[in-house]
Amino acid sequence: MEDIPIDKSFEKAIDSEFVTDPVLSKDAPSNEDDAQVTEAVTKNLDATQLYLGEIGFSPLLSAEEEVFFARKALKGCEASRKRMIVSNLRLVVKIARRYNNRGLALLDLIEEGNLGLIRAVEKFDPERGFRFSTYATWWIRQTIERAIMNQTRTIRLPIHVVKELNIYLRTARELAQKLDHEPSAEEIAEALDKPVEDVSKMLRLNERITSVDTPIGGDNDKALLDIIADDQEFGPEEKLQENDMRDNIIKWLGELNPKQREVLARRFGLMGYEPSTLEDVGAEIGLTRERVRQIQVEALRRLKDMLSQEGLDLENLFDRLRG
Fold it and tell me: Are residues 107 and 207 in the same domain?
C-alpha cells in the first residue's frame, strides 16, 4: 500500500474525538461564579480559534486527486481515507458557520459536520461523475441539521421518550406516503399495534416541542423552520454545489419511465410544474386518482433505491429540487 504523508496534527484530530469545553446551559445553577463563566467561554473561543488555525494548513485536493484518493480509500487505504477527510475539514467549517448561534456552539456544529464528512468519504463513489464537495455538502448539512433538531428535543425529553417518538414519526411519514394524507392517530396506532391513547399523547408532545413556528430562544428570534436548509444564507460556492446535486438528481429522475417521471414532477412541483393533488394530476394526464397514487409509490420506491446506492436518502429531497 502506498504511503501517503499526512500532517500529524491533522491525523491526531481525525483519530480522536474533538474535545470541547462544556457549553453552559440555561439549566446551570443560578449561583454560578462569574469568573467560571468567563473562563469557560474564553476556553471555548480559544479552542475554536486553535482548531480553525490548524485546519488552515490542510491542502485542498484537485478533481484528479479526489478521484485518486477516493479510489484508494474504497479499496481500504486508511491513509487515503484520512487525506480525503483532512483536506475537506475547511468545507465543514464553512457550512457549520452558517448554522452558528442557533442552539449549538460552533465547535459542536463542526464536530457534527465532521461526522457527516467521514460518512461521505466512506460512501463516496468517484465513478459517479460529480465532485466530492457536492456529495459531502449533502451529508454535512444533514448531520448538522439533525443535531440542531435533536438538541431542541433532548433538552426537554428523556432519551427513551425521544426514541419512542421517532418511531411514531417515522411510521407517520411512511403512512403519509402510502395514504396520500396525514395519517390519524388511529391509523398510526393500528400500524404499530399500539393503544390510540399512547400515540395521541406522543403526537401532542411532539407538536409542543418541535413546532417549526416557535422561536428557538435566546437572542435569536428565528424559528426552527428558518434555520433548517435556509438556502438564502448560502454563498455562491454552496449554491453551485446545490445546483450540481440538483442536476444529478434530475439525471436520476431521468432513469424513471416517462409516466413515473411526469407524475413525480407534477405531484411535487419539479421540472417547472406546480405541486398538484392526485386528483389534479389524474385529470391532467387522463388517469384515475388511484392509478396516479400507484405510479407515485412505484416511482418513489425506484428513486429511493437509486439514491440509497449513492448513500443518500429520500428525506427532504424534493425541497432541494424545487425553486
Answer: no
